[in-house]
Structures are given as C-alpha cells and as structure tokens.
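Let's sit down with a protein and look at its sequence and fold side by side. Please make up or recall a protein chain and show it to me in full. Label the sequence line and the structure token line clearly, so we can match residues to local backbone shapes. Go ahead whenever you are ready, and we will take it from there.
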Amino acid sequence: MNGITTEGWIEYSRQIEQAGADGLEVNIFFIPGDILVSSSEVEHRYLNIITEIRNTVKIPIAVKLNPYFSSFGNMASRLQKSGANALVLFNRFYQPDFDISELKIVSNLQYSESNEIRLPLLWIAMLYGRIPVSLAATTGVQSANEVIKYILAGADIAMTASALYKNGIGHLKTMTMNLKRWMDTMDFDTVSGFKGILSQQHISDPTAFERANYIKVLHSRR
C-alpha cells in the first residue's frame, strides 16, 4: 500500500485488514525534494506512519524501505519499535532520464540486474539476528543464485519481478529447481539450515561487511 495523507494510510489499512488480508506491506515512496526538510523530519514521517497504522490494524506490517538514511540500522530498529514486523529491502525508485535530442525529461522502466543485490545483501546480513523482524529481499533477484545469497545473508523471503517480466512466470519453476539442486549439492535439507550463516554475527571476520574490508577489496584487483 502507498499513501499520501495520514488519514489515507489509516483508512486504507483498516479496509485492507477488513477485506481479509493476512499482512500489509507499507510502501512509503517519499523523495524529500524540499532542501529545507531535515533528516529528522523525514525519519519522523516514516515512524509516524507506521505508528498510526500499528494502532489501526492487528495484522503484520512490512515496511518497504529505501537505503537513503544516514544511519540505516538505527532507523530499522526504530521502525521495529514503532510496530513494523518485517522490513523489505530495498525500494527501487524509478528515476528520471534526459532526452538530449528533445531536451526533455523522460520516464522509462529499467529492469533490475543481479549486480544490484549487493546493497540489500549487505544490510540484510548486518541486521539479521540483531532486530526482531522478518527480512525480505526485493532487488536484483534474477535466478536461484540471488535467492541463495539472500538466504545466506538472513532473508526470510526473496522477491522477484524483473526476472518474470523478462522470462515469464515459468521462470519461477526454474529458480526453485536450481535452488533445490544447490541444496542437494551442499547437503542442506531445509532452507533454515543455511539461512543467515553468512550474516555478520555468524562469520569469523565481521569486518568483512565494514570499511575495514576496503583494503582487501583493493588487493583483490592485483
């Protein structure tokens, strides 16, 4: 669900619950274009929306987020305390492009690519086990490989859209089959058997997710 006013968020949340929904995904698609709006005001807007919806419905609430917070981990924790049961990482804004021949702004759909998983992969791995919420990954899932990586980081759910636009609904069967094949090869009986084993709290070198790993990245270019 995406809304504009506080009243709209509350009323539509109530209607969706009454219609029989098991859960609600709140997509706060907000770009603070006003340079006078402070970061604390932006954060308050998100937190206030979730608090109001939590006070309105009893079903689980998932919040679809963008990564553009100065302290994303802290924001994630505050959203959970405001009533969020799950976080969906990350919202992929459709940004404008320029037509240099017609000198105008154009909007077009760009499908996601597998290399876009790295930022949500990082934060899912950082948040897993630290905040009591379910984590969903929703960027760059093109094949079973991305599903596997997200689960290794700690995701409960991997979402895909671009891959289905490009390959058709039948691609889901291919992804599931390749996931099961990998699990058999790696001797995992269940998804829970490998969920989160490469999260920050479970690996031997937690700095691999932080700037301390920058030198290693540079050395890898040799």
In short: Residues 32 and 41 are 10 Å apart (CA to CA). The chain has one domain: 6-219. The first helix runs from residue 6 to 18. The mean pLDDT is 91.
